[in-house]
Protein backbone atom coordinates (compact mmCIF):
# COMPACT_ATOMS: atom_id res chain seq x y z
CA UNK A 1 0.00 0.00 0.00
CA UNK A 2 1.39 3.37 -1.00
CA UNK A 3 1.28 6.42 1.25
CA UNK A 4 -1.15 7.96 -1.18
CA UNK A 5 -3.57 4.98 -0.70
CA UNK A 6 -3.40 5.31 3.10
CA UNK A 7 -4.68 8.86 2.93
CA UNK A 8 -7.14 8.34 0.09
CA UNK A 9 -10.86 9.26 0.43
CA UNK A 10 -11.84 5.64 -0.32
CA UNK A 11 -9.93 4.41 2.77
CA UNK A 12 -11.59 7.05 4.95
CA UNK A 13 -15.00 5.89 3.65
CA UNK A 14 -14.19 2.27 4.53
CA UNK A 15 -13.19 3.33 8.05
CA UNK A 16 -16.45 5.24 8.50
CA UNK A 17 -18.54 2.33 7.23
CA UNK A 18 -16.77 -0.19 9.52
CA UNK A 19 -17.15 2.11 12.51
CA UNK A 20 -20.89 2.55 11.90
CA UNK A 21 -21.39 -1.21 11.58
CA UNK A 22 -19.59 -1.86 14.87
CA UNK A 23 -21.76 0.73 16.62
CA UNK A 24 -24.92 -0.99 15.42
CA UNK A 25 -23.69 -4.42 16.49
CA UNK A 26 -22.74 -3.11 19.91
CA UNK A 27 -26.11 -1.42 20.45
CA UNK A 28 -28.36 -3.09 23.08
CA UNK A 29 -31.03 -5.42 21.74
CA UNK A 30 -29.30 -6.15 18.45
CA UNK A 31 -29.09 -9.82 17.46
CA UNK A 32 -27.59 -11.07 14.22
CA UNK A 33 -30.05 -13.12 12.24
CA UNK A 34 -29.10 -15.99 9.92
CA UNK A 35 -28.96 -13.63 6.92
CA UNK A 36 -26.57 -11.31 8.75
CA UNK A 37 -29.20 -8.66 9.43
CA UNK A 38 -29.77 -7.08 12.82
CA UNK A 39 -33.09 -7.85 14.52
CA UNK A 40 -34.45 -6.86 17.93
CA UNK A 41 -34.06 -9.41 20.68
CA UNK A 42 -37.01 -10.58 22.78
CA UNK A 43 -37.26 -9.09 26.24
CA UNK A 44 -38.22 -5.90 28.04
CA UNK A 45 -38.47 -2.80 25.88
CA UNK A 46 -37.30 0.66 26.75
CA UNK A 47 -40.06 3.06 27.72
CA UNK A 48 -42.46 0.28 28.79
CA UNK A 49 -43.36 0.04 32.47
CA UNK A 50 -43.14 -3.46 33.89
CA UNK A 51 -44.94 -5.47 35.14
CA UNK A 52 -47.73 -4.77 32.66
CA UNK A 53 -51.04 -4.35 34.46
CA UNK A 54 -54.14 -5.99 32.92
CA UNK A 55 -57.60 -5.12 34.23
CA UNK A 56 -60.16 -7.92 34.28
CA UNK A 57 -63.95 -7.65 34.42
CA UNK A 58 -65.62 -9.17 37.47
CA UNK A 59 -68.66 -10.20 35.41
CA UNK A 60 -67.23 -11.96 32.34
CA UNK A 61 -63.73 -12.52 33.89
CA UNK A 62 -62.08 -11.36 30.65
CA UNK A 63 -59.85 -8.31 30.11
CA UNK A 64 -62.11 -5.27 30.04
CA UNK A 65 -61.20 -4.60 26.39
CA UNK A 66 -63.16 -7.75 25.46
CA UNK A 67 -66.31 -6.99 27.48
CA UNK A 68 -68.08 -5.64 24.39
CA UNK A 69 -67.93 -9.10 22.80
CA UNK A 70 -69.64 -10.75 25.78
CA UNK A 71 -73.36 -11.55 25.35
CA UNK A 72 -74.24 -9.88 28.67
CA UNK A 73 -72.38 -6.64 27.98
CA UNK A 74 -74.88 -4.62 30.04
CA UNK A 75 -73.88 -6.51 33.17
CA UNK A 76 -70.22 -5.88 32.37
CA UNK A 77 -70.90 -2.16 32.05
CA UNK A 78 -72.74 -2.14 35.38
CA UNK A 79 -69.79 -3.85 37.05
CA UNK A 80 -67.28 -1.46 35.45
CA UNK A 81 -69.31 1.60 36.43
CA UNK A 82 -69.32 0.46 40.04
CA UNK A 83 -65.76 -0.87 40.38
CA UNK A 84 -63.72 0.89 37.66
CA UNK A 85 -65.50 4.20 36.99
CA UNK A 86 -62.58 5.79 35.14
CA UNK A 87 -62.26 2.86 32.74
CA UNK A 88 -66.04 2.84 32.35
CA UNK A 89 -66.06 6.49 31.28
CA UNK A 90 -63.19 5.84 28.84
CA UNK A 91 -65.03 2.92 27.25
CA UNK A 92 -68.25 4.94 26.96
CA UNK A 93 -66.40 7.75 25.21
CA UNK A 94 -64.79 5.29 22.81
CA UNK A 95 -68.18 3.75 22.10
CA UNK A 96 -69.70 7.15 21.37
CA UNK A 97 -66.84 7.91 18.99
CA UNK A 98 -67.45 4.67 17.09
CA UNK A 99 -71.18 5.41 16.83
CA UNK A 100 -70.47 8.84 15.35
CA UNK A 101 -68.06 7.27 12.85
CA UNK A 102 -70.67 4.66 11.88
CA UNK A 103 -73.34 7.35 11.42
CA UNK A 104 -71.08 9.31 9.07
CA UNK A 105 -70.31 6.25 6.95
CA UNK A 106 -72.09 5.29 3.74
CA UNK A 107 -74.63 2.50 3.19
CA UNK A 108 -71.93 0.04 2.17
CA UNK A 109 -70.24 0.43 5.54
CA UNK A 110 -73.52 -0.23 7.32
CA UNK A 111 -74.03 -3.45 5.39
CA UNK A 112 -70.68 -4.81 6.47
CA UNK A 113 -70.50 -7.30 9.24
CA UNK A 114 -70.18 -5.62 12.62
CA UNK A 115 -67.14 -6.01 14.78
CA UNK A 116 -67.18 -9.36 16.51
CA UNK A 117 -69.52 -10.97 13.99
CA UNK A 118 -69.77 -14.73 14.09
CA UNK A 119 -66.98 -14.89 16.63
CA UNK A 120 -69.24 -13.46 19.34
CA UNK A 121 -70.45 -15.90 21.93
CA UNK A 122 -74.14 -16.64 21.84
CA UNK A 123 -76.06 -15.93 25.02
CA UNK A 124 -77.38 -19.05 26.63
CA UNK A 125 -81.10 -19.42 26.42
CA UNK A 126 -82.74 -19.29 29.78
CA UNK A 127 -84.26 -22.57 30.80
CA UNK A 128 -87.95 -21.91 31.36
CA UNK A 129 -88.64 -25.51 32.38
CA UNK A 130 -90.47 -25.50 35.73
CA UNK A 131 -88.53 -27.07 38.57
CA UNK A 132 -90.58 -29.98 39.81
CA UNK A 133 -89.75 -33.50 41.02
CA UNK A 134 -92.39 -36.19 40.67
CA UNK A 135 -92.51 -39.61 42.31
CA UNK A 136 -94.84 -42.43 41.40
CA UNK A 137 -95.30 -46.14 41.86
CA UNK A 138 -95.63 -48.55 38.96
CA UNK A 139 -96.35 -52.30 38.92
CA UNK A 140 -93.57 -54.73 38.05
CA UNK A 141 -94.84 -58.18 37.37
CA UNK A 142 -97.79 -59.49 39.40
CA UNK A 143 -96.76 -58.69 42.97
CA UNK A 144 -93.74 -56.40 42.74
CA UNK A 145 -93.53 -52.67 42.04
CA UNK A 146 -90.99 -49.97 41.23
CA UNK A 147 -90.69 -46.31 42.15
CA UNK A 148 -90.25 -43.81 39.34
CA UNK A 149 -88.54 -40.44 39.98
CA UNK A 150 -88.53 -37.64 37.40
CA UNK A 151 -87.52 -33.98 37.40
CA UNK A 152 -84.17 -34.16 39.19
CA UNK A 153 -82.35 -32.80 36.14
CA UNK A 154 -84.35 -29.55 36.42
CA UNK A 155 -82.29 -28.91 39.55
CA UNK A 156 -79.02 -29.70 37.68
CA UNK A 157 -78.59 -32.99 39.52
CA UNK A 158 -76.57 -35.73 37.84
CA UNK A 159 -79.01 -38.60 37.30
CA UNK A 160 -76.32 -41.28 37.39
CA UNK A 161 -75.08 -40.01 40.75
CA UNK A 162 -78.66 -39.85 42.05
CA UNK A 163 -79.43 -43.39 40.84
CA UNK A 164 -76.32 -44.72 42.57
CA UNK A 165 -77.31 -42.89 45.77
CA UNK A 166 -80.82 -44.39 45.74
CA UNK A 167 -79.46 -47.87 45.09
CA UNK A 168 -77.06 -47.60 48.04
CA UNK A 169 -79.66 -46.00 50.31
CA UNK A 170 -82.35 -48.61 49.72
CA UNK A 171 -80.00 -51.54 49.01
CA UNK A 172 -81.77 -52.27 45.74
CA UNK A 173 -81.44 -51.83 42.01
CA UNK A 174 -81.66 -48.28 40.69
CA UNK A 175 -80.99 -47.05 37.16
CA UNK A 176 -81.50 -44.16 34.75
CA UNK A 177 -84.14 -45.20 32.22
CA UNK A 178 -84.83 -41.94 30.40
CA UNK A 179 -83.68 -38.38 29.78
CA UNK A 180 -85.00 -37.38 33.20
CA UNK A 181 -86.19 -40.60 34.79
CA UNK A 182 -84.85 -42.94 37.46
CA UNK A 183 -86.44 -46.27 38.31
CA UNK A 184 -85.88 -47.69 41.79
CA UNK A 185 -86.71 -51.33 42.47
CA UNK A 186 -89.34 -51.59 45.21
CA UNK A 187 -91.91 -49.28 46.73
CA UNK A 188 -89.93 -46.44 48.37
CA UNK A 189 -92.12 -43.56 47.21
CA UNK A 190 -93.07 -42.30 50.67
CA UNK A 191 -89.48 -42.36 51.94
CA UNK A 192 -88.34 -40.12 49.10
CA UNK A 193 -90.21 -37.12 50.52
CA UNK A 194 -87.69 -37.02 53.37
CA UNK A 195 -84.61 -38.45 51.67
CA UNK A 196 -84.52 -36.15 48.62
CA UNK A 197 -84.58 -32.84 50.59
CA UNK A 198 -81.96 -34.21 52.99
CA UNK A 199 -79.64 -35.17 50.14
CA UNK A 200 -80.30 -32.10 47.99
CA UNK A 201 -81.34 -29.12 50.17
CA UNK A 202 -82.22 -27.04 47.09
CA UNK A 203 -85.19 -29.36 46.54
CA UNK A 204 -87.81 -28.42 49.09
CA UNK A 205 -90.54 -30.90 49.92
CA UNK A 206 -93.01 -28.55 48.26
CA UNK A 207 -91.25 -29.21 44.93
CA UNK A 208 -91.97 -32.94 45.15
CA UNK A 209 -95.30 -34.13 43.72
CA UNK A 210 -96.82 -37.52 44.34
CA UNK A 211 -98.41 -38.91 41.19
CA UNK A 212 -99.67 -42.02 42.92
CA UNK A 213 -99.88 -45.32 41.01
CA UNK A 214 -99.14 -45.23 37.31
CA UNK A 215 -98.91 -47.84 34.61
CA UNK A 216 -95.71 -48.11 32.60
Give helix % range. Answer: 25-40%
Low-confidence runs (pLDDT<50, min 5 residues)? 116-120
Report the end-to-end length measured between terminal Cα atoms: 112 Å
Kindly provide the radius of gyration, computed on alpha-carbon positions and rounded to a whole number of angstroms. Answer: 36 Å
How many beta-strand segments?
7
In quaternary terms, these chains amount to: single chain
Overall geometry comes to elongated
Structure in words:
Belongs to the DENR family. This is Density-regulated protein. Residues 133-200 form the SUI1 domain. InterPro entries: DENR/SUI1_TIF, DENR_C, DENR_eukaryotes, DENR_N, SUI1, SUI1_dom_sf. GO terms for molecular function: mRNA binding; translation initiation factor activity. The N and C termini lie far apart (112 Å). This protein has a five-stranded mixed β-sheet with strand order 5-6-4-3-7, with helices on one face. The protein has a two-stranded antiparallel sheet with strand order 1-2. The model is unreliable at 116-120 (pLDDT under 50). 38% of the residues lie in helices and 17% in strands. Strand 3 and strand 4 (144-150) form a beta hairpin. It is α+β, with helices and mostly antiparallel strands and 216 residues long. Helix 3 (73-83) crosses helix 4 (85-104). The protein has seven helices and seven strands.
Amino acid sequence: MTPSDANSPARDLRKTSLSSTLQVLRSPGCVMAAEGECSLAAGPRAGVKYPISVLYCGNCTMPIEYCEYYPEYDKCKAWLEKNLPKEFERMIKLGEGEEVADASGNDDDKKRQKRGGKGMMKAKKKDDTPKQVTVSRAPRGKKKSVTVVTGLSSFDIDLKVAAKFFGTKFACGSSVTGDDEIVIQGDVKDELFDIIPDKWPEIDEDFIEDLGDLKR
